[in-house]
Structures are given as C-alpha cells and as structure tokens.
Amino acid sequence: xxxxxxxxxxxxxxxxxxxxxxxxxxxxxxxxxxxxxxxxxxxxxxxxxxxxxxxxxxxxxxxxxxxxxxxxxxxxxxxxxxxxxxxxxxxxxxxxxxxxxxxxxxxxxxxxxxxxxxxxxxxxxxxxxxxxxxxxxxxxxxxxxxxxxxxxxxxxxxxxxxxxxxxxxxxxxxxxxxxxxxxxxxxxxxxxxxxxxxxxxxxxxxxxxxxxxxxxxxxxxxxxxxxxxxxxxxxxxxxxxxxxxxxxxxxxxxxxxxxxxxxxxxxxxxxxxxxxxxxxxxxxxxxxxxxxxxxxxxxxxxxxxxxxxxxxxxxxxxxxxxxxxxxxxxxxxxxxxxxxxxxxxxxxxxxxxxxxxxxxxxxxxxxxxxxxxxxxxxxxxxxxxxxxxxxxxxxxxxx
Length: 399
Fold this sequence. Notes:
Blueprint: H1 16-21, H2 69-94, H3 108-116, E1 123-125, H4 131-136, H5 141-144, H6 146-149, H7 158-161, H8 172-186, E2 193-198, H9 205-216, E3 221-227, E4 230-231, E5 234-235, E6 256-260, H10 264-279, E7 285-290, H11 309-316, H12 320-331, H13 336-358, H14 378-398
Parallel strand pairs: 1-2, 2-3, 3-7, 6-7
Antiparallel strand pairs: 4-5
Helix pairs in contact: 2-3, 2-12, 2-13, 3-10, 8-9
C-alpha cells in the first residue's frame, strides 16, 4: 500500500494589513523590560570626588553641589584643631595619662564632616575612634578621654549631648542607632541618627541586623563607614568580595553612596544629602568613605607587621587638611594670617588639655554602682552597701 496522501498547504504571506486585521488574541505583543530592582540604591561606580588631591576644584555636579564656603572654612578650622587634639592624645598615651588611644589622624574629613552634617538635636553613635568627632561637636575633651583613661565607661552625659557612649564592641552601635532613630520618628520628631562604623564592623552581624531593621521601619539613620583599609591588621580583601562596602546596602533596600573620604568638600556634600534623605522620612542611607588611618590601630599595635612604610607615605599626598587648605586659598577665603590663627587656636586647645589631664582625678569607689540602672535593683543596692561597709572598716583600721 502506498504512502498516505498528504495535502499540500500553500505558503501564507503575512502583510502589514493582515497583522492589523489579526485578532488581539493572536497578535504578538512586545514584553516591557522588567524594572531594575536595584535602581535608586546603587552607589556610583567610582567614589564621589569634588576636589583633586592638590585641592583643585573639579567640574561642578548637580547631584552633589558644593557646600557654602563659610561652612568649609569652619570645617577647615575644626579639622586642624581636631588633628592637634589627636596628636596630643597620642602623646598623653605615651606619658601614661591614657591607657590606650586609637588615633583618627588622616580621617579628619570623615570625623568633622560627620558632625557638621548634623543638627545639635541629632544623635551621634560613635566608635572608640571618634574622639576627634566628639570634641569637634563641642564635647569636653577631658570627658571624651575618660573612657580611654579608665575612669568611666562614658565621661559625658549622652542625653544632654545627644551623643551615645563610645562603642568598643564592633557594630553594636548600628543596632542602637536604628532603635533610637525609629523611636524618635515614631514620636513625630525629625531627629536623624548618624552611626560611625569602621570597615571591619561591616563583617559583624549587628551591622546587618541594624541596617535591615532601619530599612524595614524606615528609621532615619545614616551609616557612615570609614573604610580605612584595615580592621586592625586584616586587610579589606580578607573581609569582603564586594566591589565596595557601599554595595552592602543594596541587599537591604538602602540607598548607598561611596565617596573619597580624604576630600572634605565631597564628604560633606554626600553626607548632607544622606542626612536630608533620612530627615525627609525616606529611611536609612549608607555612605562608604574611602580613607586611611596614618597611625597604628592603637598605641598597642605594631603596624609594620601588616603594612609597609611606602603605603603609608603614599597616603600622605592625599592629606585632607592640606587638600582643603589649598582649595580655600585658591578661592581667596584663606590666607597666611588665617592659617596661623587657626594653628594658634589648636596649640592653645592642646595646652589646655595637657594641663587638665595632668591633674589626677578623684575617684569614689562607690561610683562604680552609679548609672548601672536608672533605678538601682535590690541586688545592686546590697552590693553597694557591702563595698561601703568594707571601705568604712578599712578607714577605721587606718585611724
């Protein structure tokens, strides 16, 4: 039996008119591109920079306008005084006046820019390295150094200064900042909290928990990551495989930016935008500042074991103070007399700090029980009475 008969079907030529006459059900529609879920959250590929390392102004940008020149003059003054404070505190450590001191020299633009971007009613959540930022905010330097002297866990009044105690455990201030910022927002206040963070803190769980909470509840908090390239001795390459730390905000739905942390003008411009974003009720913002600490991690650290002198020397050419001074001189708002006046103010500040730190503090052993709880527990009161009785017995025996 032969093969079955197959009827040939003539080829169909589809004309534009035929397509127009086709049923909407049969007409093929183009699928619109899905929206990019990361849009609005991604940092720029290169850190924002408004000044060249030599202080030359780069072309103006619409996204980050230059801050007012008077603000930049004040920033310069605080940076110079802040560095002199930092150098003096390092010297006090060598003299035995401080138990330890983590220098922030080289990170002045981040330290001062962070506090200048805030109002007095905003809150700061510092790490142990933010002594310079706190003195620039107007806190008493002796009270700031009390923690590092070993007298108190915190020598200033956090509520009065809107400044949390300096945080020595890594990243716990990220959670504290998110909680306070959310509480302030819940009560209808336009308070912003700024949390200083080191690059090493972004490897801690508290960082991720804090930024996730802030994102979900739109807490008005700015996370300022000072990426100084080392978590003590651990280089950045051993901490993360991300293109930059700023990308860590994207996964939590947090807008992020990276900035040249040694460019004072850019740092202030980026932080002002971040603070405005948070204050407007849009939630948290993450800023990564690329900077470098010129001194060891603390006076107890041997930096020669993990970085060489050539690397440190290369960063001296990116000095944030020299950079801003060159720019302000070129703009005609800073001259030799003004520079000398600021330097003299810085020396007077350091001299006053030396005199006050030379005085031995009077320590009351019973103060150990103060400020543990707002309302002392029965157990704490019992312990306090035991110590008081022992001290009284010792005093009677010496009489």
